[in-house]
Fold this sequence. Notes:
This protein is mainly β. About 0% of the residues lie in helices and about 60% in strands. It has strands spanning about 1-5, 10-15, 20-25, 30-40, 45-50, 55-60, 65-70, 75-80, 90-100, 110, 115-120.
Amino acid sequence: QVQLVESGGGLVQAGGSLRLSCAASGSIFRIDVMDWYRQAPGNQRELVAGITIGGSTNYADSVKGRFTISRDNAKNTVYLQMNSLRPEDTAAYYCHAEATTDILVPTTDYWGQGTQVTVSS
């Protein structure tokens, strides 16, 4: 099993910055992809940014140029630096990982509990 624990959420004024962290622990053999999703009340969960084990990244159009995803493979940790925050960025942010616990086991999806980000205008 793999556990994901997020941290770094909070309340910030528009234009401010926050840095989210997500640490994976447990019986980890390899984490192929680590992502950040978010979900605002009444909305579907949406992909914010993702990063592969090799460092390739992708971003939602709405956050390009403002958010930066990075990962430390040695620490099994992914980060999301969020700058120029807007009220519409307010949501619960969830860490997601595609990971495997053994070389012979296919990857499985794992989710964190979420961390709230609130941006005031």
